[in-house]
Amino acid sequence: MRHLISPLDFSVEELDKLLALAGDIEKNPQKYAHVCDDKRLATLFYEPSTRTRLSFEAAMMNLGGKVLGFSSADSSSAAKGESVADTIRVVSCYADIAAMRHPKEGAALVASMASSIPVINAGDGGHQHPTQTLTDLLTIHSLKGRLGDMTIGLCGDLKFGRTVHSLIEALVRYANVRFYLISPEELRVPSWIREDVLEKNHIEYKEVERLEDALPELDILYMTRVQKERFFNEEDYVRMKDFYILDMPKLELAKKDMYILHPLPRVNEIAVEVDSDPRAAYFRQAQYGVYVRMALILTLLEVKLPC
Ligand code: CP
Description:
Elements: H1 12-27, E1 40-45, H2 51-62, E2 66-70, H3 84-91, E3 97-102, H4 107-114, E4 119-124, H5 130-144, E5 150-155, H6 162-171, E6 177-182, H7 191-199, E7 205-208, H8 211-214, E8 220-223, H9 234-240, H10 248-251, E9 259-261, H11 282-300
Helix pairs in contact: 1-5, 1-11, 2-11, 3-4, 5-6, 5-11
C-alpha cells in the first residue's frame, strides 16, 4: 500500500506517468466516469480549505466514487482529544482512501503509519503540500510543454509557504531549473531548503527582495500570500502582508510568455486587473488540480484503467 506524504514519494518516472494520466483524464473524462463506482474517499480536514478539499471531493465524484469526511477539527472528535492515529484507524473501516490536512507538521506521516488505507497529505502545517505540487507540475507542463530548462521565481512568504517548499523539492529533479527566491529578509526560505535541497543538488538560485529585479528573467512566476495563520503576532503579519503586489505596470517588465501561478487563496498580492492578462494562469491551475487528484486517487488505489 502506498501513501503520498512528500513530493518525493514518486520517482520522476512515476510522476511522468501520473501527469500523462491526468492529461488523458482531461481529454477523455467520460472514460473514467465509473472506474471508482465502489470506492469511498474520506476528507479529514483539521484546517480550513476551499480548493484542496473540494477538488479532492470533485475528483472522487468524477470517478464515480463517494466522499465522506469533516472540514474542521471542531466538527470531529479531535475536539474531544482523539489522536490522529486513532482517527485514521477508525476511518480505515469507512473509506478506501483518505486525504488529510492538519496544522501540525508530520501529522499525515503519523496517520499513514497507523492506517490500513492510503493516506494523502493535503497539507501539514508549514511543511509540505504535495498534491498542490502535483497540480503545479501539471500546470507548468501543460502551459510550457516541459518541466526542465526554465527560470522560476517564487515570491512572497517563502518561510511558511508549504507549497513553495514542496514545489522546489520536486523541481530540482529536472534539468536546468534555476530559481529566483523573492522575499523580504524575514520570510526567506528555511535553511533546510537552501542547504539540503538547493545546495546539495547544485541548483542555481538567487535570493532577492525586489520583484522587479527578477521579473524580466522569469519563465514562471509563482506568487504566494503571506501565511497569516502561521505568524506569532498580528503586528508582524500587518507589516509583511502587502510587501508584494503584482499589478499591470510591474507585469510590463515580464516576458510575454511568462506564466503567473498562485496556489490560491489570493489576498492582495495579485491585483485583480492582472486576472484578464493571458499570462494569469492561477484559475486554470485550480482546474488542473482536479485532473491530477483524479490521477492520484487511481494510482494509489491501483484501479485497473480503461483502455
Ligand atoms: N491551494 C490550497 O491549498 O488552497 P486551499 O487552502 O483552499 O485548499
